[in-house]
Write a structure and sequence with these properties.
Layout lengths: L4 E6 L10 E4 L10 H4 L3 E2 L7 H7 L6 H14 L1 H10 L4 E6 L8 H12 L1
Parallel strand pairs: 1-4, 2-3, 2-4
Helix pairs in contact: 3-5
Length: 119
């Protein structure tokens, strides 16, 4: 994975050739987005936070630090999904697609940092 450029983008933003490989990293399909219009190359549901963790976090900013810790723990325990995702990341550009409104505090941000630091 050295040299791979991982970008983050909301599912509702315009698709661009600069996105490279578009990987949806959400457990649920983004609300209101037609699959035909999404241009998703891969959807890796299993890399997303568990349903329990997602519901607990509920995008409450005060829970962000603990959410990051818990999600990183889930990623460490989820080697098959992590290895699958790493296998899709090449020297080319990839974009992790997420649905959250908060672009700074969401699971894709944690996932990107996790991969860059620990893989």
């Amino acid at each position: 994975m050295p040299g791979a450029a991982i970008r983050l983008k909301r599912a509702y933003e315009a698709i661009s050739a600069a996105d490279g490989t578009r990987i949806l990293v959400e457990r649920l399909w983004p609300r209101g987005l037609a699959k035909a219009d999404a241009a998703i190359d891969h959807w890796i549901k299993d890399i997303a936070p568990s349903t329990e963790l997602r519901k607990w976090y509920d995008h409450q900013p005060e829970r962000w630090p603990e959410f990051q810790e818990r999600y990183r723990g889930e990623l460490r325990e989820n080697q098959p999904a992590v290895e699958h995702l790493v296998g899709l990341i090449s020297e080319d550009r990839v974009t992790f697609i997420f649905a959250a409104k908060d672009e700074a505090r969401n699971s894709a941000v944690v996932l990107k940092a996790f991969l860059e630091a620990e893989i």
